[in-house]
Amino acid sequence: MSGVRKQVLQILPGLLFLVLISLISGILMPRFVRLLPSSLLLAIPTAFLGFAESLVMIAGEVDLSLTGSLVLINAISISAYTDYHINEFLFVVIPLVTGLIIGAIHGLLVAFGRLNSFLVTAGTSFAWSGLALVILRQPRGKVPLWFNEVFSIGKVLGVPLAVLFIVIAALFWLLFSVSPLALKSYAVGSSPKATFSFGIDVNRIKFYAFVLNGFLVGIAGLIMTGIIGSGDPRLGGFSTVLAVLAALIGGATFAGGTGNGLGAFLAAIGLQFTRNLIAWVGVAHYHLDLFYGAALLVLIAGIAYLRRSREIGME
Q: What DSSP designation does 311 have?
């Protein structure tokens, strides 16, 4: 199977899942089409987290710190602008730089420190969340006026913000997938020892995967900050779980060597729409997490069953 065809096939599960949930939402909730632009925008931060997760899973690692990283990026951005009055250009740059730093820290600990990524990122998740609380303590702050207006209108030059972000994600994935780093990342995830024997620096590739992961989390944090228009150290919710699940739908596995960032991006939007759908059909607010968690368990079981069936068929 050619590389291009394989990439297209790996995008399909996420795309089909998104289309299916959208169709069901459109049937059960007539307002869905009218609310689609805003619903899409609200799902974009989670979509970038799913994309970010897929990059480290391709290289055979995992990032469980996404929720903590997201709230820390939000807290630092808002504090820098509200408390220290940084200029508006730096306000946009800080989330991206913070994400890169977080990714570099994870990369150094996992790739060069030879620590387990599951344990490292589980630990830093609490550390980042705690640091966000120290910085903000409570929901507060503001964003630049022009930034708030862009997200309030939801469009740039007549083009919906969500569409622009989807295009950015697609271009990012295209550039990554045709780069030597992509081929090496898949190789490292598939067989680190064999890849090392061919002269490829396995640790360096894993480090780069975490840095790119951090950059995408930075984008997610910037967008989330624009959506809420302030700082809130209690953000996150199911973010990490949704990101991992989106990466799995996008073809990634915990064993590494497979996955598709754009497929994960689309799947994450579908997962966010699923939560909206459960709320729209009349589930009480205090039962929402219960029903949503049950839906995610069913989805996880379905993914496991389909993959196991495929493995049996290949034997």
A: H
State the average pLDDT over residues 260-278. 92
Residue 72 has pLDDT above 70, yes or no: yes
Q: Are 45 and 224 in contact (CB under 8 A)?
A: yes
* Amino acid identity for residue 23 in this structure: L
DSSP for 237-300, please give it.
TTHHHHHHHHHHHTT--TT-S---HHHHHHHHHHHHHHHHHHHHTT--HHHHHHHHHHHHHHHH
142, 230 in Cβ contact below 8 A?
yes
**Residues 6 or more apart in contact with residue 150 via CB below 8 angstroms:** 156, 161, 226
The model's pLDDT over 189-212, given as tens digits with 9 standing for 90+, comes to 999 999 999 999 999 999 999 999
Task: Specify the 3-state DSSP secondary structure of 84.
Answer: coil
DSSP characters over 164-205: HHHHHHHHHHHHHHTSHHHHHHHHHHH-HHHHHHTT--HHHH
What's the pLDDT at 293? 82
Tell me how far apart the 2 most distant CA atoms of the chain are, in Å.
62
Q: How far apart are CA 81 and CA 56, in angstroms?
A: 31
Q: Which amino acid is at 175?
A: L
> What would the mean pLDDT of 148-170 be, rounded to a whole number?
93
- pLDDT band with cut points at 50, 70 and 90 for residue 310: low
How is 265-279 classified by DSSP, letter by letter? HHHHHHHHHHHHHHH
Cα angle: 312, vertex 314, 315; to 5 degrees: 65
| Residues whose CB falls within 8 Å of the CB of residue 139, separated by 6 or more in sequence, listed in order | 230, 231, 232, 233, 234
Enter the DSSP assignment of 140: B
- What is the pTM assigned to this prediction? 0.93
